Amino acid sequence: MHYLLLVYSIWILNACQAKTNSADMNTQRINIIEAVEKNQLSVVEAGLKKGADANTTDKNKRSLLLIATQANNLQMATLLVAHGANVNQQDQIKDSPFLYAGAAGFTELVKLFLAHGARFDLFNRYNGTALIPACERGHIDVVKILANTKGFPVDHVNRLGWTALMEAVVLGNGSEKYVTVVQLLVNAGCNIQIPDHDGVTALQHARSRGYTEIAGVLENASAKKNGKE
Questions:
Q1: Which of 98, 142, 147 is CA-nearest to residue 124?
Q2: Best exposed site among 106, 164, 171, 186 by fewest CB in 10 Å?
Q3: Sequence-ordered alpha helix ranges (H) in 38-88
Q4: Buried b (16+ CB within 10 A) or exposed e, 178-217
Q5: What spatial distance separates the first Cα and last Cα of the chain, rounded to whole Å?
């Protein structure tokens, strides 16, 4: 009888300890999330040195690094990456630090993530790359970097049936920055002949919208390609 009481007492103590440890871990998790959100760099650094997980996520599965990325906080992102934060970790809507940085035009963060293992085979909720929304929004510096990064899938087609080039034409407004984006893609060797789901090419879309400068860039690219052939 005394033996059973002893075993039971030990079990109770262990259960209480487990609950305490769990509560402590949850508190630590919440604290470091808040510290990243509030840009408390020293607090985050201290927490990481004490063993906090650099890949901690919030209720929406946003990692600490994604939270820092969404705030365009290069200093915080650099700290987190130095402690092993995953630049490819996706949240519940498939945003990752790398994908978000590209879409938002955060050039320095894109560079940081490329230097720390950014993957090109993980896609956003539209099954798109970091380059496609960068082209859509006219983020010239990001387009220049990604389009010229070895191994980057410049001609990837997203769920809408559009490449980066197609989005620059269809969702752009034909202004100078989109002319530059198209030229950058052409210079990087993109395939200008890939049509959308309706069989319409980027050049045909540019002509129908009256984007004469973009059409000119694509016509020149086509002429050069045909000349080589």
A1: 98
A2: 171
A3: 41-49, 64-70, 74-82
A4: bbbbbbbbbebebebebbbeeeebbbbbbbeeebebbbeb
A5: 93
Residue 83 pLDDT grade (very low, low, confident, very high; cuts 50, 70, 90):
very high
Pick one of 2.60.40.10, 3.20.20.110, 1.25.40.20, 3.30.565.10 as the CATH number of 127-229: 1.25.40.20
**What does the alpha-carbon distance between residue 37 and residue 59 come to, in Å, rounded to a whole number?**
14
Q: Which sequence spans correspond to the domains of the chain?
A: 9-125, 127-229
Both tokens assigned to 182: 């198209």
Residue 15 has pLDDT above 60, yes or no: no
Place of tokens 């690094």: 65
Q: What is the pLDDT of residue 189?
A: 97
CA–CA separation, 193 and 163 (whole Å): 10
Q: What is the pLDDT of residues 40-49, one digit of tens each?
A: 999 999 999 9
Please state, as a whole number, how many other Cβ atoms lie within 10 Å of the Cβ of residue 25. Answer: 12
Q: Are 56 and 31 in contact (CB under 8 A)?
A: no
Window from 22-36, 47-61, 141-155, 205-219 with minimum mean pLDDT: 22-36
Query: Do 9-125 and 127-229 fold alike per CATH?
Result: yes
Looking at the domain 9-125, which fold is it? 1.25.40
pLDDT at 90: 98
